[in-house]
């Protein structure tokens, strides 16, 4: 029996990757320093896994920004607009790579970034490959080969990890009409063959192909592509040991296809889809090794050793020890790095900490499970089993988890609690009294959190600042932001959220049922790391959370100030959620807490309230057959949070990178008065779904990309607004950035927002001229 890992966090135990990349982008450090930090992280990860007892250790799971982008660079899938970046003197392969991820605006060269979207149903974002008809591929970057050799020099023969050829194509986007991306399989496969040839020359033993699309609905053409690709790989490398990794869901109706592929090891996710085991065992070829994904790679709860051992013994009895591997359910990039870094009980109590495992601990769990089966080190291993039993039992009976009043409130919900008083057509008439102009301008909520602002929060936490000193500084920063928004003539203002650390963590810190880590960082995209709250118990709101600063900001201006909240589905999705009750139950509890906050904001005189739900599309189950059940409770949770107000209070929501076509009816069912969406990277393509549906409510399509440091010109935004107006009536349109501005700098933010406001005014003026001409005629 062997143990394997599918991937390890690449941010570093102290977020070293974030710090070095951001310094490099700011021209504060050199190229060689970036490479050295990356090398240090890789070596630390490999050695840690070796020492923990992992038999098959991955390589090529490290990335400076995104592993999908790594593959695009490897395969030479580099859009032509980056040719000038490649040719620019002094630029390295890393500069090209970052330009594809973030855009490039330097020395007269201005190139937009590639699109970004969510990795399946996680909060991780990947850079979307761009595909063209008859597109050629070539080996451009040798990263995968270099890192395998690097590990070998340390005495560790790793298992290189590749996104499988079919999944890589399915992750991308056709950038022109007249072909399907899967048609490119025959062009792409020779590059895989070349990579494998080079690895074979270095005596590679195992290669892992990640094929998560095998757990999704596939077309017949997709299935044939799988058969073709793996047949060709096997033909070229008859002795190569292929590990086929599937995760996030069960194989379902792709089971027969998957088990027919000529691979040596099949990995299945038994955390997300434990029920598939019986069918997998029945379908698996006799000589195929089964890798059991038993340790949860997506959540932070300790593995239940007794339960896992029972499953392993069941499989061993059928297949024998040598045909069974033990592993996490998926790559551990979705887990924080090391629970040992949680040393402050004010953040995380000892009672809750005993229930948790981060990536380092999950690796140890995998190794311990093997020892429990093979009876290695029996005394110390049995002690770990007893400690595990105690922790699991303690969690089940803990008094801090259950709140009868919260449960009773959920049971007492009525149908009308999830509906506004009147339909949108009636509400819109009342909301016209807000007297907002056409193409009303606003932002999504946050303004830049400078190092200085973050330092105030740190000083408050460590006791250097009193609450009064901290509040005085936040008040001044808020006033500056309000005054500046008035100066540039934004229509609906925000207070800037300077008092907030994270859009989910901030709320979780003020809700009962949540716990927080100090160092539970997880990569969201690039250098952006988040620290998801831990929902361990029933959720309720003991007191108002945002009213103080929103009401203060409103007192500074005669313009409307938006109340800014995070919605229940997003708080759920972006937290580590308790696994002892249905997610729908937890989401409804959060919805009631947000509803209380919405009502308190309205009572404080706030007329426009935004309840952000960027994660609602992300939460969709991977199989369409399971969608409706999720959408029913997710949409209902949003409506519970938003429906306690009067008709003249305008409810906004915001959604991130999402394809809306297949859930547009559900988006409409949410019944927000205004929805803002990210559309700039897709050049307003996402609006087509709203246009085709004849979406009745108001829409704010993002007119510039906040995930890139480049400052767009006014003309760009005007062109995007013209595209929007071509499909959505102008009276329904708002003007805003793609997302919040927290991660940007003030200089670029000010320049971009000034251009945005002027673009909106230009559109208004054009409409006025057109109306006057029509009146004359």
Summarize the structure.
The protein contains 28 helices and 27 strands. It has 777 residues and is α/β, with parallel strands linked by helices.
How does the helix and strand content classify structurally? alpha/beta
Let me know the number of strands. 27
Label the overall shape.
Answer: globular
The stretches of 5 or more residues where confidence is low (pLDDT under 50) are none
Could you give the order of strands across the largest sheet? 1-14-13-12-11-10-8-2
Gross CATH architecture of the largest domain? Alpha-Beta Barrel
Cofactor: Zn(2+)
EC number: 2.1.1.14
Pfam family, one: Meth_synt_2
Enzyme class: transferase
Report what the structure shows.
This protein is an alpha/beta fold. The chain folds into two domains: 395 residues, Alpha-Beta Barrel (TIM Barrel), CATH 3.20.20; 355 residues, TIM Barrel. The protein contains 28 helices and 27 strands. The strands form eight sheets. Strands 1-14-13-12-11-10-8-2 form an eight-stranded parallel β-sheet. β11, α10 and β12 form a beta-alpha-beta unit. The longest helix is centred in the last third of the chain and has 31 residues. The termini are far apart. The mean pLDDT is 94.
């Amino acid at each position: 029996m062997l143990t394997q890992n599918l991937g390890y966090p690449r941010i570093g135990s102290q977020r070293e990757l974030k710090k070095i990349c951001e310094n490099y982008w700011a021209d504060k450090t050199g190229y060689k320093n970036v490479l050295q930090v990356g090398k240090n992280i890789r070596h630390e990860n490999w050695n840690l896994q070796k020492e923990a007892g992992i038999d098959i250790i991955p390589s090529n799971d490290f990335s400076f920004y995104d592993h999908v982008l790594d593959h695009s660079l490897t395969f030479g899938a580099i859009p032509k607009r980056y040719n000038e970046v490649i040719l620019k003197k002094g630029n390295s392969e890393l500069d090209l790579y970052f330009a594809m991820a973030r855009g490039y605006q330097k020395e007269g060269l201005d190139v937009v970034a590639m699109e970004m979207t969510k990795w399946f149903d996680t909060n991780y974002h990947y850079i979307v490959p761009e595909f063209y008809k008859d597109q050629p591929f070539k080996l451009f970057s040798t990263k995968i080969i270099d890192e395998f050799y690097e590990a070998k020099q340390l005495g560790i023969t790793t298992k290189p990890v590749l996104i499988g050829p079919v999944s890589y194509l399915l992750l991308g986007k056709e950038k022109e009409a007249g072909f399907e991306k899967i048609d490119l399989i025959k062009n792409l496969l020779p590059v895989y063959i070349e990579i494998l040839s080079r690895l074979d020359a270095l005596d590679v033993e195992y290669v892992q192909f990640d094929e998560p699309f095998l757990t999704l609905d596939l077309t017949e053409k997709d299935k044939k592509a799988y058969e073709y690709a793996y047949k060709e790989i096997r033909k070229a490398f008859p002795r190569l040991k292929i590990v086929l990794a599937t995760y996030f869901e069960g194989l379902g109706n792709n089971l027969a296809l998957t088990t027919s592929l000529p691979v040596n090891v099949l990995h299945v996710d038994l955390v997300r889809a434990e029920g598939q085991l019986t069918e997998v065992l029945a379908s698996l070829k006799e000589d195929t090794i089964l890798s059991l994904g038993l340790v949860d790679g997506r959540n932070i709860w300790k593995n239940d050793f007794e339960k896992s051992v029972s499953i392993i013994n069941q499989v061993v009895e059928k297949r024998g020890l040598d045909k069974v591997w033990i592993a996490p359910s998926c790559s551990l990039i979705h887990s924080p790095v090391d629970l040992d870094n949680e040393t402050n009980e004010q953040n995380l109590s000892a009672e809750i900490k005993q229930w948790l495992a981060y990536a380092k601990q999950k690796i140890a769990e995998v190794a311990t499970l093997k020892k429990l089966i093979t009876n290695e080190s029996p005394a110390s291993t049995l002690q770990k089993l007893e400690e595990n039993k105690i922790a699991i039992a303690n969690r089940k009976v803990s008094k801090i988890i259950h709140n009868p009043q919260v449960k009773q409130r959920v049971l007492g919900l009525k149908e009308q609690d999830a509906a506004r008083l009147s339909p949108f057509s009636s509400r819109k008439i009342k909301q016209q009294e807000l007297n907002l102009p056409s193409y009303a301008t606003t932002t999504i909520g946050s303004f830049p959190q400078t190092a200085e602002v973050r330092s105030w929060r740190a000083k408050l936490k460590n006791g250097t600042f009193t609450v009064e000193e901290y509040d005085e500084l936040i008040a001044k920063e808020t006033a500056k932001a309000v005054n500046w928004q008035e100066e540039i003539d934004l229509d609906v203002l925000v207070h800037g959220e300077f008092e907030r650390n994270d859009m989910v963590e901030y709320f979780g810190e003020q809700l009962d049922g949540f716990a927080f880590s100090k160092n539970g960082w997880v990569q969201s995209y690039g250098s952006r790391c988040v620290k998801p709250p831990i929902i361990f118990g029933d959720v309720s709101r003991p007191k108002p959370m945002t009213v103080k600063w929103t009401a203060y900001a409103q007192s500074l201006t005669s313009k409307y100030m938006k109340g800014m909240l995070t919605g229940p589905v997003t708080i759920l999705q972006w937290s580590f959620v308790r696994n002892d009750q249905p997610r729908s139950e937890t989401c409804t509890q959060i919805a009631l807490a947000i509803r209380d906050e919405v009502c308190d904001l309205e009572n404080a005189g706030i007329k426009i309230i935004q309840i952000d739900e960027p994660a609602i599309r992300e939460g969709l189950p991977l199989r369409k057959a399971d969608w409706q059940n999720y959408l029913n409770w997710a949409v209902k949770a949003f409506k519970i949070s938003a429906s306690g107000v009067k008709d003249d209070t305008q409810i906004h929501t915001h959604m991130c990178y999402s394809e809306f076509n297949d859930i547009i009816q559900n988006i409409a069912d949410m019944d927000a008065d205004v929805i803002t969406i990210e559309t700039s990277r897709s050049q307003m393509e996402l609006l087509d779904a709203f246009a085709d549906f004849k979406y009745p409510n108001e829409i704010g399509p993002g007119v510039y990309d906040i995930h890139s440091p480049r400052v767009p010109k006014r003309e760009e935004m005007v062109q995007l607004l013209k595209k929007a107006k071509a499909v959505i009536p102008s009276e329904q349109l708002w003007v805003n950035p793609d997302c919040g501005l927290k991660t940007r700098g003030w200089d670029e933010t000010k320049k971009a927002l000034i251009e945005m406001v002027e673009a909106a005014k230009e559109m208004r003026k054009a409409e006025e001229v057109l109306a006057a001409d029509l009146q004359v005629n």
